[in-house]
């Protein structure tokens, strides 16, 4: 765990762009461009939450779109130095809770078939496989489609 250091989960906005780009570079190998992050952070119809350490260091981010009654989770990332400390799990639970308050009944996501750590996280949070996209990612790996009902636990 992070010991005595305080982790706060809060909504992110346009002012967090540089921190999101830095986190993306560390945790996702530049998965999204600056333009994609700008759009994600500026669009009020998207839910973007961050885990902030000691009130100023972004260590994790989660983003989702609400489409009718479905929360489509687009990204969850934790900096390598802060992984395996429960931060990703807490952030995902906060995102699900926020989605439910906006009327989401189910949550969906895609995860690379070779990303076993993420699959374990999603399994612990109640997600189950519901489909497969073969060769979906640029490296040729498959995308596992996962879904779970949303309910406050």
What does this structure look like?
It is a single chain. The protein is α+β, with helices and mostly antiparallel strands. Helix content is 29%, strand content 35%. It has 4 helices and 7 strands; from the N terminus they run E-H-H-E-E-E-H-E-H-E-E. It has helices spanning 17-28, 34-42, 87-101, 116-124, and strands spanning 7-11, 46-53, 57-67, 70-78, 106-112, 128-133, 143-149. It has a 7-stranded mixed sheet with strand order 1-2-3-4-5-7-6, with helices on both faces. A hairpin with a 2-residue loop joins strand 3 (57-67) and strand 4 (70-78). The longest helix is centred in the middle third of the chain and has 15 residues, at 87-101. The mean pLDDT is 90.
Write the layout of secondary structure elements.
Layout: E1 7-11, H1 17-28, H2 34-42, E2 46-53, E3 57-67, E4 70-78, H3 87-101, E5 106-112, H4 116-124, E6 128-133, E7 143-149
Strand content: 25-35%
How is the largest sheet built, in terms of strand order?
Answer: 1-2-3-4-5-7-6
> Measured on Cα atoms, how large is the radius of gyration?
15 Å
Percentage of residues in helical conformation: 25-40%
Shape: globular
Largest sheet: 7 strands, mixed
Task: Give the H and E element order.
Answer: EHHEEEHEHEE
Uncertain residue ranges: none
Summing up helix and strand content along with how strands pair, one would put the structural category as alpha+beta
Got a strand count?
A: 7
Overall average residue pLDDT: 90
Distance between the termini: 22 Å
Counted by DSSP, the helix tally is: 4
């Amino acid at each position: 765990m992070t010991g005595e250091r305080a982790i706060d989960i809060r909504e992110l906005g346009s002012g967090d762009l540089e921190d999101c780009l830095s986190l993306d570079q560390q945790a996702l190998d530049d998965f999204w461009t600056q333009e994609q992050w700008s759009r994600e952070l500026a669009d009020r119809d998207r839910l973007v939450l961050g885990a902030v350490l000691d009130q100023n260091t972004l260590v994790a981010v989660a983003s989702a779109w609400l489409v009718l009654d479905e929360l489509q989770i687009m990204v969850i990332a934790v900096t390598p130095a802060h992984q395996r400390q429960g931060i990703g799990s807490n952030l995902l639970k906060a995102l699900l809770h926020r989605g439910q308050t906006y009327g989401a009944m189910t949550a969906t996501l895609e995860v690379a078939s070779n990303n076993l750590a993420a699959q374990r996280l999603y399994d612990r949070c109640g997600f189950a496989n519901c489909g497969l996209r073969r060769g979906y990612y640029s490296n040729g790996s498959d995308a596992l489609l996962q879904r779970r009902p949303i309910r406050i636990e």
